[in-house]
């Protein structure tokens, strides 16, 4: 099948390091001694726990319920007992804790009753619901709930569906092996997506350094009787970035401000399609995933791993070498060192790389930028990293935004090529988080201001109301008096004719009076506040200084420079606006 | 604990970049030493030592790590460009003065590596040609017949500066000859003098320029420079000199002569391409290169200096930030319309 491919600008060619972990077929990792399953494993709302310590759970049983439309359910990876629902450290660069369900496996690996579905007889809505309930999320690493991407836009016709089998990050081979060994199920999963989205074309992109995977996929497509196109794309990092792959296969460029659906494209990872098929056709929720275990280990290999397996237990299977000093989750370009080696494997874990200084030598010291432009040439989003770096460093975040910092996908190409060894991506992350923080702060302070103003308004209104009530009461009193006088019979016509207007005018006057009173009170408060914030260097004085000060004060009072009053009436000073 | 991603890095460093720039200069230097005078090698050493000492001194003053910055190679590149731009038999102190000024003022006082708005080597050239115009215009006569030992003596002031040294570059000779002749001799007649002008641009000098061209192409192939600046520089000079040559071939030399004499090739590939003081956007580089090429021609043909590359580059350095600002390319996904 000949097809016109498009190029994206930039990109780099790091050594791929993939052969190490390709030697053996996928192995099943044993059930670990303990599973720590984080509830929040996808973008969107945190699932609510539906189990408690002491509960017995079966494999595939719901333990966390999807919270909202963009959220996906979480399930028990094996049968066993819930030990606790508690906070545990996460495989996230922040090193923060999150709510996890800790399960002690019973070793029986006993499934819940699984219900295969004939999805073709279901309404699309039900299929999406099913995927959400099965916890199907993007397994390429972004973990966006898949059902959320399976509604076609009403305005833009769905042109192409791109299936991502590019796997461009060095070291990672789990998608490669998945396609080699389970191509048919991947293809069937793609079929589900196709039926829901109804795109005109389906393009499966695989980097041309995986000919076996491409071959297996082609054969599977044929065997299943589909018309999907398997396209081998040039091996160039980050060809597996969704936006880059879309560009290569369709020529369309998705900017940061847009979603690919706005351009009539949607992109799914091959592993996601696989789990979707398992979920629908076998009734199996996502409780495991393929993980490449490689790096500084004796036996690099791909494993099918239960979600929640502690990383150190998994790593042991591959026999890490003694100088291993950390675990990188993800690839060497975009991955991160996990905060503790005991953190669990999650749905986003595609690869574990045992870190050692031999494998990834410590970086040379950072030099000043020589504006060589290598970073700009390498940037697949055609940004000017050195400019963004300059302004991030100078904390001129407005300028970084002018240089489109939010279009940066943090692919690391710029850092990779920089001869000055500047950790550019780190600067961009810093700038982005700073901008977010400031934005939040601004919103918060605006809200606080609005709240304060509203409160003031309410207080004023309450006061006015009170004053009005008082005035009304006074008027009623006056009217009553007038009426009494009239009743006494000594009233004259003149009085009667004037009394009524007085009675009517009284509320008006009273209201004015009340207003004047509030204004005066406010002024008094303001004055008191002013005085309260007067310089306080006269507070802790030695007696003789105090005496001198008092004398000065007395002279001032004598000269009528200031009022003696505040000193005599300090009480209002304690009144604070809050 | 560890530096963050990417964990894999390309095997690149500033030292490597600078070393390759120096390597790219080697063909030109070889032609220089072989065809004009080996004294250039002495000057390269003098300039390098002066640059390193000045750099070490300044780094020490500012408390910056000397080991890292002295080995980054940037001072050597500046030093070599100065040596190659100055007359090869200039007295040692002139080269030293220029180099020290370049490093201390034009580079370190602006913040050091990567911070200088002007090309330090060209600042050195400009300062010296203004301060010492006579010494800066004494070039060895074509077919210099002085032994290397005598040349070294001249450089170090141990021997009188003999007549054989007090020539001019072919470029300058052409300008002077045309001025003196006032129409009685044409460019064609002058160029026929192969003693001075070699086969097309200056005896010896044309091969030096060819050496720079070769090194420049190698740098382009190695991705150390992009094609924009040299192409625009050469293109602009070609168009302007070609136009004037077609208009009056007796008064204006042909483009080949201009491209292969003086600092044109060195300027196009090694000086105007300096990333620190030049433009960074593709369109900006084109404007920068073209501007430098045009100004260099105008200054050398119509101005008061024998060659115009230094001033042309400095003038364009001045405009570089603005050009960059105005030529920011659209980013991924934002190329349609506005
Ligand atoms: S690659 Fe590094 S040194 Fe070169 S321009 Fe970019 S940030 Fe500066
Ligand atoms: S990390 Fe950002 S700036 Fe750097 S190359 Fe990737 S997209 Fe461009």
Notes on the protein architecture:
The complex is a heterodimer of chains A (578) and B (338). Chain A has 578 residues and is an alpha/beta fold. Chain A contains 14 helices and 17 strands. In chain A, the strands form four sheets. Chain A has a six-stranded mixed beta sheet with strand order 1-14-13-17-15-16, with helices on both faces. In chain A, helix 2 packs parallel to helix 3, helix 2 packs across helix 5 (270-282) and helix 8 packs across helix 11. Chain A is globular. Chain A starts with 26 loop residues before the first strand and ends in a 10-residue tail after the last helix. With 338 residues, chain B is mainly alpha-helical. Chain B is built from 17 helices and no strands. Chain B has helices spanning 14-36, 39-62, 66-70, 74-85, 92-107, 120-131, 133-136, 148-155, 170-181, 187-191, 194-197, 205-221, 228-247, 255-260, 264-271, 282-302, 309-326. In chain B, helix 4 crosses helix 5, helix 4 packs parallel to helix 6 and helix 5 packs across helix 6 (120-131). The longest helix of chain B has 24 residues, at 39-62. The termini of chain B are far apart. The relative contact order of chain B is 0.11. The mean pLDDT of chain B is 89. The chains are: A alpha/beta (578), B mainly alpha (338). At the A-B interface, strand 16, helix 7 and helix 10 of A face helix 1 of B. Bound molecules: iron/sulfur cluster (2 copies). One iron/sulfur cluster is lined by residues 378-381, 383, 385, 408-414, 424-425, 428 of chain A. Residues 369-375, 385-386, 389, 417-420, 422, 424 of chain A line the site of one iron/sulfur cluster (SF4).
């Amino acid at each position: 099948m000949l097809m016109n491919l498009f190029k994206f600008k930039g990109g780099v060619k790091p050594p791929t390091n993939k052969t190490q972990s390709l030697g053996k077929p996928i192995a099943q990792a044993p059930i670990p001694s303990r599973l720590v399953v984080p509830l929040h494993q996808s973008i969107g709302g945190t699932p609510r726990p539906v189990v408690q310590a002491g509960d017995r759970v079966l494999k595939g049983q719901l333990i966390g319920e999807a919270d909202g439309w963009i959220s996906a359910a979480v399930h028990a990876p094996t049968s066993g007992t819930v030990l606790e629902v508690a906070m545990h450290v996460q495989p996230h660069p922040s090193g923060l804790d999150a709510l996890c369900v800790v399960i002690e496996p019973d070793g029986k690996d006993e499934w819940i009753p699984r219900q295969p579905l004939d999805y073709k007889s279901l309404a699309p809505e039900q299929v999406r619901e099913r995927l959400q309930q099965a916890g199907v999320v993007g397994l390429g690493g972004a973990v966006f709930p898949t059902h959320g991407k399976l509604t076609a836009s009403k305005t833009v016709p769905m042109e192409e569906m791109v299936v991502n089998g590019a796997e461009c990050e060095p070291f990672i081979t789990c998608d490669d092996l998945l396609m080699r060994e389970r191509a048919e199920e991947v293809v069937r999963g793609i079929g589900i997506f196709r039926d829901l989205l109804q795109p005109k074309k389906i393009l499966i992109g695989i980097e041309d350094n995986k000919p076996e995977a491409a071959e297996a996929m082609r054969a599977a497509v044929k065997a299943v009787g589909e018309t999907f196109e398997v396209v081998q794309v040039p091996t160039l990092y980050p060809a597996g970035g969704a936006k880059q792959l879309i560009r290569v296969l369709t020529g369309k460029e998705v900017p940061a401000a847009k979603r690919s659906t706005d351009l009539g494209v949607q992109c799914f990872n091959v592993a996601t399609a696989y789990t979707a098929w398992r979920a629908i056709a076998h009734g199996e929720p996502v409780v495991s995933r393929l993980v490449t275990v490689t790096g500084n280990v004796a036996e690099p290999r791909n494993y099918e791993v239960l979600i929640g397996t502690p990383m150190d237990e998994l790593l042991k299977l591959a026999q890490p070498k003694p100088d291993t000093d950390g675990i990188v989750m993800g690839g060497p370009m975009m991955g991160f060192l996990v905060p503790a080696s005991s953190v669990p494997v999650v749905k986003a874990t595609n690869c574990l790389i045992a870190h050692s200084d031999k494998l990834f030598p410590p970086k040379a010291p950072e030099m000043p930028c020589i504006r060589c432009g290598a970073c700009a040439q390498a940037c697949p989003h055609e940004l000017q990293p050195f400019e963004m770096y300059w302004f991030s460093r100078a904390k001129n975040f407005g300028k970084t935004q002018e240089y489109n910092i939010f279009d940066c996908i943090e692919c690391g190409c710029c850092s990779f090529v920089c001869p000055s060894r500047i950790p550019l991506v780190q600067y961009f992350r810093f700038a982005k988080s700073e901008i977010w923080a400031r934005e939040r702060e601004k919103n918060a302070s605006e809200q606080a201001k609005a709240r304060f103003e509203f409160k003031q308004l309410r207080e004023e209104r309450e006061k006015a109301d009170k004053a009005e009530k008082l005035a009304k009461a006074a008027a009623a009193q006056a009217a009553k008096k007038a009426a009494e006088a009239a009743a006494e019979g000594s009233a004259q016509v003149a009085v009667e004719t004037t009394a009524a207007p007085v009675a009517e005018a009284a509320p008006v006057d009273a209201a004015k009076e009340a207003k004047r009173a509030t204004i005066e009170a406010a002024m008094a408060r303001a004055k008191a506040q002013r005085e309260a914030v007067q310089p306080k260097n006269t507070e802790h004085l030695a007696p003789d200084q105090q005496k001198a000060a008092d004398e000065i004060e007395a002279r001032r009072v004598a000269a009528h420079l200031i009022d003696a009053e505040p000193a005599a009436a300090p009480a209002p000073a304690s009144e604070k606006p809050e | 604990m560890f530096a963050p991603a990417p964990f894999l890095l390309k095997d690149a460093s500033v030292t490597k970049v600078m070393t390759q720039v120096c390597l790219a200069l080697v063909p030109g230097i070889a032609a220089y030493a072989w065809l004009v005078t080996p004294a250039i090698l002495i000057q390269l050493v003098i300039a390098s030592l002066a640059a390193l000492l000045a750099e070490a001194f300044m780094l020490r003053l500012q408390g910056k790590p000397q080991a890292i910055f002295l080995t980054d190679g940037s001072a050597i590149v500046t030093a070599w460009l100065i040596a190659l731009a100055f007359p090869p038999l200039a007295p040692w102190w002139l080269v030293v003065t220029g180099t020290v000024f370049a490093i201390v003022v034009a580079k370190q006082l602006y913040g050091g590596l990567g911070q200088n708005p002007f090309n330090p080597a060209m600042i050195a050239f400009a300062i010296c040609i203004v301060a010492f115009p006579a010494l800066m215009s004494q070039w060895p006569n074509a077919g210099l017949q002085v032994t290397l030992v005598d040349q070294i003596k001249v450089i170090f002031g141990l021997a009188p500066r003999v007549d054989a040294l007090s020539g001019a570059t072919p470029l300058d000779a052409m300008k002077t000859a045309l001025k003196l002749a006032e129409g009685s001799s044409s460019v064609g007649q002058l160029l026929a003098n192969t003693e001075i002008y070699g086969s097309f641009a200056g005896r010896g000098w044309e091969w030096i320029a060819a050496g720079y061209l070769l090194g420049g192409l190698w740098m382009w192939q190695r991705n150390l420079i992009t094609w924009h600046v040299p192409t625009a520089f050469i293109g602009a000079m070609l168009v302007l000199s070609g136009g004037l040559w077609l208009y009056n071939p007796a008064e204006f030399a042909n483009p080949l002569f201009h491209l292969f004499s003086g600092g044109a090739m060195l300027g196009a590939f090694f000086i105007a391409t300096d990333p620190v003081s030049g433009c960074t956007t593709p369109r900006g580089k084109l404007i920068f290169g073209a501007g430098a090429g045009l100004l260099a021609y105008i200054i050398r043909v119509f101005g008061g200096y024998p060659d115009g590359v230094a001033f042309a580059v400095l003038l364009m350095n001045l405009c570089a930030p603005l050009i960059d600002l105005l030529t920011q390319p659209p980013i991924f996904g934002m190329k349609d319309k506005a």
